[in-house]
Design a protein that fits this description.
By secondary structure, the protein is an alpha/beta fold. It has two domains: 82 residues, no CATH class; 116 residues, 3-Layer(aba) Sandwich (Trna Endonuclease, Chain: A, domain 1). Helices cover 58% and strands 13% of the residues. It has ten helices and seven strands. Strands 1-2-3-5-7 form a five-stranded mixed β-sheet, sandwiched between helices. Helix 3 runs antiparallel to helix 5, helix 6 crosses helix 10 and helix 8 runs parallel beside helix 9. The protein starts with a helix and ends in a 9-residue tail after the last helix. The N terminus is likely disordered.
């Protein structure tokens, strides 16, 4: 019984902060969200099978409860991955985005953010968008999305602007390659990088993607 309850509590303790607060990008659940959905379901099944095999009949259900967070992650990942654009659609979106002017790209981003239930405001300066949802504010820099290389300076400017807007999160949109310093800064300060995969997911409902 102790084993089963500890397994359940350990898994739940991990899940609750992830659902309530920002999920660490390298946490187990964040990695599973980026992995095929069936992996999470397989882990949940292993919890259930191991509990059934090694725990007394009266207590195995408690051990199986340790797999519930993985079951939830698997279902969520399945729904997200079913909504994700196909490889052909992703290629078409990225090709369209690479030929857009700023005004058209900004319109597409605003459409994508609005679909995610954000209240969107366009701003000037280090950030281009101010997003608000459920009491949280995010600033987004996207104007230099075509830049082939992105250094840490761009992310530093964005992060420095956050307090002025009361923003708790920053996002940087780019199709380019980030320097090691930029990647390190993003990881250290929690700057969310919206690159190819995330961008196609954001713009999957974009109207007239080929124009």
């Amino acid at each position: 019984m102790r084993i089963g309850m500890c397994m359940a509590l350990a898994a739940t303790t991990i899940e609750t902060p992830a659902m309530k607060f920002k999920m660490a990008p390298n946490s187990l659940f964040a990695i599973l969200l980026r992995s095929p959905w069936w992996i999470s379901l397989l882990i949940a099944a292993v919890f259930a099978g191991a509990s059934r095999a090694f725990l007394p009949d009266a207590y195995w259900v408690f051990g199986a409860m340790g797999g519930f967070p993985f079951l939830g992650i698997g279902v969520y990942a399945f729904l997200q991955q079913m909504q994700a654009p196909s490889a052909q659609q992703s290629e078409a979106i990225l090709k369209a985005v690479s030929t857009m002017g700023w005004r058209e790209f900004a319109d597409a981003l605003e459409q994508g953010f609005t679909a995610q239930r954000y209240k969107v405001q366009r701003i000037d300066g280090a950030a281009d968008f101010l997003l608000q949802r459920e009491g949280r504010t995010t600033i987004v820099a996207a104007r230099r999305w075509k830049a082939a290389h992105v250094g840490a300076e761009a992310l530093e400017s964005l992060q420095a602007a956050a307090p002025a807007y009361g923003a708790s999160q920053c996002q940087y949109v780019t199709l380019g390659q980030l320097s090691d310093n930029a990647l390190g800064f993003a990881k250290k300060h929690g700057v969310q990088l919206v690159q190819a995969d995330a961008l196609t997911l954001l713009l999957r409902g974009m109207t007239k993607p080929g124009k």
